[in-house]
Amino acid sequence: NAGVTQTPKFRILKIGQSMTLQCTQDMNHNYMYWYRQDPGMGLKLIYYSVGAGITDKGEVPNGYNVSRSTTEDFPLRLELAAPSQTSVYFCASSPLAGGPSWTQYFGPGTRLLVL
Amino acid sequence: DAKTTQPNSMESNEEEPVHLPCNHSTISGTDYIHWYRQLPSQGPEYVIHGLTSNVNNRMASLAIAEDRKSSTLILHRATLRDAAVYYCILRPMEYGNKLVFGAGTILRVKS
Fold first, then answer.
1. A35 and B101 in contact by Cβ < 8 A?
2. Can you count the helices (H) and strands (E) in chain A?
3. Do the beta carbons of residue B50 and residue B111 sit within 8 Å?
4. B55 touches chain A (CB under 8 A)
5. Quick check: B40 contacting A, CB < 8 Å?
6. How far apart are CA A94 and CA A5, in angstroms?
7. Residue A97 banded pLDDT, cuts 50, 70, 90
8. Beta-carbon neighbour count of residue B100 at 10 Å?
9. What is the reported pLDDT for B100?
């Protein structure tokens, strides 16, 4: 299993440009998540999805959009990039909620710089 | 979500045990205690979790206080590869499908 994969690894955007961060998991997990991590800080949840066609906002959703058309993929869209969106973005997945063995699996991250 | 408190940073010598503390005085009876770590330039990875009893796995041990208001992650022999940020996170047992990350503890390991 590749686990959770993210592309690209690094990207530079100009202010106002748009882009999509890709995330794919091959563990057949229902739940998928997008986090951002600013320097020296913990991760903050942007959006999450409990299954294909179902998404919900996390702590910091403004400026982002998501969709979930398949179990495997959960892309994150930035429509009008702003310098405040400079961050490292992590995608994660997990099996159904609850249960003693539940845990989350993270991708390697996408580093985004908005200039 | 119940809050956790961890030291900002800790330092250890290689080959020695490391005890990383976490306070969670407002923990509810059905919160799991999860530990994740984040190696430099990588995504977080699961380390261990527990509910009431102490837990051991190949990576670490988790010691949970009897009143569950604190816990300690134990790395039995720190290596340079264990240098990372360690996060202590509480997760509700039922329908707990999100993790709330604090700033964690930066562990530095000296050779």
1. yes
2. 0, 11
3. no
4. no
5. no
6. 14
7. low
8. 18
9. 86
**In Å, how far is A107's CA from the nearest CA of chain B?**
6
Q: What is the pLDDT of residues A80-94, one digit of tens each?
A: 999 999 999 999 999
**SS3 sequence of B30-93:** CEEEEEEEECCCCCCEEEEEECCCCEECCCCEEEECCCCCEEEEEECCCCHHHCEEEEEEEEEC
> CB B43 to CB A109 under 8 A?
yes
Is residue B37 within 8 Å of B87, Cβ to Cβ?
yes
Which three-class secondary structure state does DSSP give residue A84? helix
Per-residue pLDDT of chain B (111 residues; tens, 9 = 90+): 668 999 999 999 999 999 999 999 999 888 999 999 999 999 999 999 999 999 999 999 999 999 999 999 999 999 999 999 999 999 887 666 788 898 999 999 999
In chain B, the N- to C-terminal Cα span, in Å, equals 38
> CB contact, 8 Å: B39 with chain A?
no
Which residues of chain B does A90 touch, with a Cβ-Cβ cutoff of 8 Å? Answer: 43-44
Dihedral angle over CA of B2, A59, A30, A68, nearest 10: 170
How far is B67 from B49, CA to CA, in rounded Å?
Answer: 16
B91 in contact with chain A, both atoms CB, cutoff 8 A: yes
Q: Look-up: residue for tokens 């994740």?
A: B36
Name the residue with tokens 């609850």: A98
Output b/e per residue, A33-60; b: 16+ Cβ within 10 A.
bbbbbeeeebbbbbbbbeebeebeebeb
